[in-house]
Specification:
The protein has nine helices and no strands. It has helices at 6-33, 38-50, 54-67, 72-84, 88-101, 106-118, 122-135, 140-157, 168-178. Helix 2 (38-50) packs antiparallel against helix 3.
C-alpha cells in the first residue's frame, strides 16, 4: 500500500479491500452458524480494527471477553483500544484486570502509566513507570517519561507565591526607595 507507483498502490488497495470483504463474509457466516465461536468473534474484531472501525472492534472484543473472562490478549488489546478512543477509565480498569492475572508485564504497565497520566493520576503513573524501569532499566522512553512526571509533580508541590508582597526584601526595598 506504500508505493510511489500509483497503479500498484491502487491494485494493492483493491486486493486489500477484497480480502477484507471476503474475510468479513466468512467470519460473519461462521458467527451465524455458531454465535459463540470465540475465534471468529475475535478475528472479526481484529478485522474491524484494521478497517479503522475501532468502536465496532471494541464491541467485538467486549463480547469475546464476556465469553472468555480471563483472555489476557483480549484484555490488552481492549485496554489499548479504549485508550485510543479516549475512554481512559475503561482502559485503566481493563489494564488493571490484566495485571491482576499477569503482573510482570512491562508493556501493559507502560500503557497503564500513559492512561493514568491522562486521568491525572500522576503518582500511579510514576509507580508503573518505576516498575517498567525495574524490568528494563535502559528503556529511554520510560526514563524520560518518569523524569517529566517527577518534574511536573515537584513543580505542582511548590505553592504559588502570594499576590501581595510580604517578604522583608520587598518592604526593605520600598523603604530604601523613600530615602
Amino acid at each position: 500500500l506504500e508505493s510511489k507507483d500509483e497503479r500498484l498502490k491502487q491494485e494493492a488497495q483493491q486486493r486489500q479491500k477484497t480480502a477484507f470483504r471476503d474475510a468479513r463474509h466468512w467470519l460473519e457466516r461462521s458467527l451465524f452458524l455458531k454465535p459463540d465461536f470465540i475465534p471468529a468473534r475475535y478475528d472479526l474484531a481484529a478485522l474491524e480494527e484494521r478497517e479503522g472501525k475501532r468502536k465496532d472492534a471494541i464491541r467485538g472484543l467486549e463480547q469475546v471477553l464476556k465469553c472468555d473472562k480471563l483472555n489476557l490478549r483480549v484484555m490488552a488489546e481492549l485496554g489499548m483500544l479504549y485508550a485510543q478512543e479516549e475512554q481512559f477509565e475503561l482502559a485503566a480498569q481493563t489494564l488493571e484486570r490484566f495485571l491482576e492475572q499477569k503482573p510482570d508485564t512491562p508493556l501493559i504497565r507502560w500503557y497503564l502509566a500513559l492512561v493514568y497520566e491522562r486521568l491525572n493520576r500522576i503518582d500511579d503513573a510514576i509507580v508503573q513507570l518505576r516498575f517498567v524501569l525495574n524490568q528494563s532499566p535502559k528503556d529511554e522512553q520510560a526514563q524520560e517519561r518518569l523524569r517529566i512526571l517527577q518534574r511536573a509533580k515537584a513543580a505542582a508541590l511548590i505553592p504559588a507565591p502570594p499576590l501581595t508582597p510580604t517578604s522583608t526584601v520587598t518592604t526593605t526595598r520600598a523603604h530604601s526607595v523613600k530615602k
